[in-house]
Amino acid sequence: MANVAFRLLSLLFPMFLGYVLKRARFFGPEDYRVVVKIIMNITLPCAVIQSFANFEMHLSMLGLTLCGFLANWGMAFLTLCLNRKREKKERMLELLCGSGFNLGNFMLPFIQQFVGDSGVALQTLFDMGNSMMSTGGTYVFGSSVLKLEGKKMGLSGVIKRLFHSTPLVVYMLMLILAVCQISIPEWVSVVVKPTGAANGFLSMFMIGMMFEVRFDAAYRNTAISVLAKRYGCVIILALIFYYLLPLDLQTRQILTLCVFAPVPSMAAVYTEQTKGDVGLASFITSCSFVISGVIIVALIFMMGLGM
User: Fold this and answer.
1) Does residue 87 fall inside a structural domain?
2) Which domain holds residue 161?
3) Mean pLDDT of all residues in 107-134
4) Residue of 163 and 73 predicted with greater confidence
């Protein structure tokens, strides 16, 4: 139990540090934008490349990738339907915070600690489908459907926006290489590993820099509403994955843990790009880390993982 608590604290510490340094005026209110550019164009793409460095893909495994992809679409579609009467930017914020799973930065340490390499491989497969949406797909989908630029994007507009997301392009390229059984050269893995390793810290640090504590009722109620809808959807997904999928027990356990992962760190980044309430998105993301941490620890003990 102590190891789990320390692991959770190690994940939350960079976020706390970013917030404290901003409040101490070590960083200005807009300095987080520099960190966002570093994450989106350098550390996250390197982390994606590194995750595929020693990964062997078999076509039979694509079912788990499809699960991750469809889980995102299901949550995104349901979130939009539940918020039909809200303004466009509010719906976009709910879409970004209500779908997707933070697996690489948050869930991976838990899987490594309590399941081992076999669990990491299963999570990676699910994360392939998840990341295609959470690193840009959901943002493009929402921008198109909600017409944030004043008009609905056509196919060419969607493709153009997709290719503006560096992490998404890298993830799609890595997936194609994996399916085609083309290995990433070892020297590439060696070069990108230190940079990719920095992604977890910078992602959490960025959230801390964006984080704003506001105690007014509207702010608090919005966060509660978004998280209640998100975890309601997650519970449905978990029940489907655990009880209905024709998979072995360990795979169903891993998928159940994965859907309880918190809001993706990129939700705040894309909220900022749509000129939404970044402070609220960061607050929701931060709260989800605490909620998911408690739920995942409880599920680990209930399932008897690592015991």
Assistant:
1) yes
2) 2-302
3) 77
4) 73
Q: What is the CATH number of the domain that holds 84?
A: 1.20.1530.20
Residue 149 banded pLDDT, cuts 50, 70, 90: low
Q: How many domains does the chain have?
A: 1
Q: What is the mean pLDDT of residues 16-41?
A: 87
C-alpha count within 13 angstroms, C-beta hemisphere, residue 250: 13
Sign (positive/negative) of CA torsion 66, 128, 158, 236?
positive
Q: What span, in angstroms and rounded, lies between the C-alpha atoms of 283 and 288?
A: 9
Whole-model pTM over 0.85: no
Q: What is the tens place of the pLDDT at every residue in 294-306? A: 898 889 888 887 6
Determine, yes or no, domain membership for 287.
yes
In angstroms, the CA 223 to CA 82 distance is 15
Q: Which residues contact 45 (CB under 8 A, 6 or more apart)?
A: 166, 167, 170
Do the domain assignments include residue 114? Answer: yes
Q: What's the pLDDT score for residue 2?
A: 62
In-domain check, residue 225: yes
